[in-house]
Write a structure and sequence with these properties.
about 170 residues, alpha+beta, 7 helices, DUF721 domain-containing protein, DUF1159
Length: about 170
């Protein structure tokens, strides 16, 4: 038997953004789920209005077999739906379908149906830390630290940074 060498990843001969590298990394999984690329997944919150941007997640895109004969046949989009938004989602499927098709500029989705797979909520963005007011002693120590800086804009920026760091609560 011939020895199989492990497949080495293709190297880029240029600098690439993190988003581009991440998209290349998840491309096999995305194609397995029926999506041509990750555009629908990555732009979901832009395409769909609230509350469905966080309460509904695209799961799979199934193309019917007749699509080869008739190019005007759209795919069936299977989505995971948060149980809280399930009733409203059933009433708004036509609006969501229209928004997806408008975004892509062609007839992509014909039907939207809920998935049987459980909904996994997206992680919420990190909440902004609360700020407390600094005591007079803390203000004086900050002022002493930056008093040797000649540039007034830089000095004020460093004071603001110091207040933000020390005032976290």
């Amino acid at each position: 038997m011939a020895d199989k060498k492990p497949k080495t990843p293709k190297r880029l001969r240029r600098s690439a953004s993190i988003a581009e590298l991440a998209e290349r990394a998840i491309e096999p999984m995305v194609r397995k789920r029926g999506f041509a690329n990750s555009e629908l997944l990555m732009r979901w919150s832009t395409i769909v209005s609230a509350p469905f941007d966080k309460g509904v997640v695209p799961d799979k895109l199934n193309w019917p077999r007749e699509s080869e004969m008739n190019p005007h046949v759209g795919a069936v989009l299977t989505v995971r739906v948060d149980p809280i938004h399930a009733l409203a989602f059933t009433h708004e499927t036509e609006t969501i379908k229209g928004a997806i098709n408008r975004y892509f500029g062609f007839y992509l989705v014909d039907k939207i149906k809920p998935s049987r797979r459980p909904f996994v909520p997206q992680l919420e963005e990190a909440k902004k830390p609360t700020q407390r007011r600094l005591s007079e002693g803390e203000e004086k120590s900050l002022a002493q630290m930056v008093e040797g800086i000649e540039n007034p804009e830089l000095r004020e920026s460093l004071l603001k940074l110091g207040r933000g760091l020390k005032g976290r609560g």
